[in-house]
UniProtKB/TrEMBL annotation:
It comes from Labrys okinawensis. The lineage of its organism: Bacteria, Pseudomonadati, Pseudomonadota, Alphaproteobacteria, Hyphomicrobiales. GO terms for cellular component: ATP-binding cassette (ABC) transporter complex, substrate-binding subunit-containing. Belongs to the ABC transporter superfamily. This is ABC transporter ATP-binding protein. The chain holds residues 1 to 239 of 389 of the full protein. Residues 4-235 form the ABC transporter domain. It is a peripheral membrane protein.
Length: 239
């Protein structure tokens, strides 16, 4: 687990487009932080900078006590959970969950133990011998989370993980992800363009527009005291 801190962090793409503009954002150790804003406002760019999948063109990003600007993705020890959770279709749930540990060269007993613990937390115990094709969308999502949990990452990074699910399952998974995060206590940055997800899931919500952080506050405060018309309109609060 680790705190994540952006200090005046910017990202200018090669074409000169400033996707993230001097972002100041301190995410506490163990916090569930939701980054929300309209399409194209720079959410994924900010998340990818934490993961080390995008270079930082200005400012300082820290993960834990370390300046992360020049660390490789592996050195950052954060787990990105993507939109389309690419599970290996030919492997069982157990082997999918344990995959990263096997690649790391962990002993079989250690892998089994960690997979078992993750499966218990995610209620996947009875599904361990199935293949992804034999699972529902929600179950697959939990397997994807299991793959991240066994690595014991410093943080979970999620980029619109529910956008491929139908409305009913999305509602269910919102609660599920929030519960799991609280159970694991792992610092989580959750990106979405969905106001309902932001307002129901986050300890705090960071609202972005056009690369600029507009407001950082708990959901209730955003609703009661939006700092500007953009936040009020976007959140759907009375201005
Ligand atoms: P969001 O996730 O909020 O929809 P992104 O972070 O994906 O936004 O993109 C922010 C802005 O940066 C958008 O205007 C997008 O078109 C632009 N952008 C994203 N990736 C690149 C890239 N590789 N090169 C140039 N511009 C990019
Ligand atoms: Mg995005």
């Amino acid at each position: 687990m680790a705190a994540i801190s952006f200090s005046q962090v910017s990202k200018a793409y090669a074409d000169g487009h400033l996707a993230v503009n001097k972002l100041d954002l301190d995410i506490a150790d163990g916090e569930f932080l939701v980054l929300v804003g309209p399409s194209g406002c720079g959410k994924s760019t900010a998340l990818r900078m934490i993961a080390g999948l995008e270079t930082i063109t200005g400012g300082t990003l820290s993960i834990g006590t370390e300046v992360a600007n020049d660390l490789s993705p592996r050195e950052r020890n954060v787990a990105m959970i993507f939109q389309s959770y690419a599970l290996y279709p030919h492997l069982s749930v157990a082997d999918n969950v344990g995959f990263a540990l096997k690649v790391r060269g962990e002993k079989r007993e250690v892998i089994e133990e960690k997979v078992k613990a993750a499966a218990a937390m995610l209620e996947l115990d009875k599904l361990l011998s199935r293949r992804p094709g034999q699972l529902s969308g929600g179950q697959r999502q939990r397997v994807a989370m299991g793959r991240a949990i066994v690595r014991e990452p410093a943080a979970f990074l999620m980029d619109e993980p529910l956008s491929n699910l139908d409305a009913r399952l999305r509602g269910q998974m919102r609660a599920e992800i929030a519960r799991l995060q609280r159970a694991s206590g792992v610092t989580t940055v959750y990106v979405t363009h969905d106001q309902v997800e932001a307002m129901t899931m986050g300890d705090r919500v960071a609202v972005m527009n056009a690369g600029v952080l507009q407001q950082l506050a708990p959901p209730r405060e955003l609703y009661d005291r939006p700092v500007n018309l953009f936040v009020a309109t976007f959140i759907g609060a009375p201005p």
